[in-house]
Each structure stands twice: as structure tokens, then as C-alpha cells.
Design goal:
Layout (H helix, E strand, L loop, with lengths): L3 E5 L4 H9 L3 E5 L2 H10 L3 E6 L4 H13 L4 E5 L2 H9 L4 E4 L4 H15 L4 H16 L9 H15 L17
Parallel strand pairs: 1-2, 1-3, 3-4, 4-5
Helix pairs in contact: 1-5, 2-3
Length: 175
């Protein structure tokens, strides 16, 4: 069975426990300077977890990972490292030292962000929601904001607005 690989430069013992919480994963630990090269050569890599403090090395790793479509999780020791991770657009960042549950959760979250969304269904839902906001579902008549927008030129010309409010109540026959 092929295992997903988490490339990392961290030797944190919590990482081993976190890998155990992720199904069918294994960690490949490399020195920080070799991570960028390994991203392109190692097969089965699904994410990169990096704790390097050197800004140029971190930038190189993040750029290589993003070029391959891999999410990057950055372990940050201080606020400067956190800001750097955000500037480089890392998918996730976490404060060090981190426990195994947080590392595993951040890896899962970064992987889920890389998955394509259900765009056609999302678009269809947005269109249906838009139609519900614009037109009454029982009568098909435009809603008040739509009518006001349509009548805007006449309102400006006449200087007044007359609102006729229809309150439709649906009755059911009782037998």
C-alpha cells in the first residue's frame, strides 16, 4: 500500500505521534537545505511541514511546494516566524512546541484546502439563493428591493415613493 509522505525538517517527537494519527502516512525527515530539492524528486509527497528559521530557505521551500501544488505547514517559534509564514502564503502555521493533535489537525486542514470544491453545486446554490432574494417564491413577484431599484428613475423624477404591500396568506382547505 502506498503511503502519503509528509516531508519535514522537524525531529520533534510529537511529529511521530501525529503521523500515527494520520491514516497511511509516513514522515521523511531531511535537513532544511535539502527539502526544496526533495519536493520535486520524492514520490508520494502530499504535504510539507517545515520549522526552519532562515527566511531565504523557508521562501525556497514554500515556492517549490506551491509550484508542485503541495500545501505547506510552518512551525513558528515566534511572531516574526508567524508573520513570515503568512507573508509567504503558507496554508497553515502553528506555534511551537505543538502537540501531536495540533500537528495532525493542521496537516489534515492543509490537505483539505488543496482539494477542489464542489463548484457546480455551490454555484447552483448561490443562484437559487439569489433568485429567492429577488423574487417571492409563492407569487413570482419581485421583492421590494428589486422594485425600488427598477423604479429609481421614476422616484428621482417624481420625488415620492408609493409602496403597495401584498401580504399573501396561504390557506389550506379543512375537511
Amino acid at each position: 500500500m502506498n503511503k502519503s509522505i509528509l516531508l519535514t525538517d522537524s525531529d520533534d517527537p510529537a511529529l511521530d505521534t501525529a503521523i500515527g494519527q494520520l491514516d497511511a502516512w509516513r514522515a521523511v525527515v531531511l535537513p532544511s537545505g535539502e527539502l526544496a530539492r526533495a519536493i520535486g524528486h520524492e514520490r508520494g509527497v502530499r504535504a510539507v511541514y517545515v520549522t526552519v528559521e532562515s527566511p531565504p530557505t523557508l521562501r525556497e521551500i514554500v515556492e517549490c511546494a506551491h509550484a508542485k501544488g503541495l500545501p505547506v505547514i510552518v512551525g513558528c517559534k515566534d511572531d516574526a516566524a508567524r508573520r513570515r509564514a503568512i507573508e509567504l502564503r503558507a496554508e497553515e502555521w502553528l506555534r511551537l512546541p505543538a502537540d501531536a493533535e495540533e500537528i495532525a489537525g493542521r496537516v489534515r486542514s492543509a490537505i483539505m484546502r488543496q482539494l477542489p470544491g464542489d463548484a457546480p453545486n455551490g454555484d447552483r446554490a448561490e443562484r437559487a439563493e439569489q433568485a429567492q432574494m429577488l423574487y417571492d417564491f409563492m407569487t413570482g413577484l419581485p421583492t421590494l428591493p428589486v422594485m425600488i431599484e427598477r423604479m429609481r428613475p421614476q422616484i428621482k423624477e417624481r420625488g415620492e415613493l408609493v409602496v403597495v404591500y401584498f401580504n399573501f396568506v396561504r390557506y389550506s382547505k379543512i375537511e
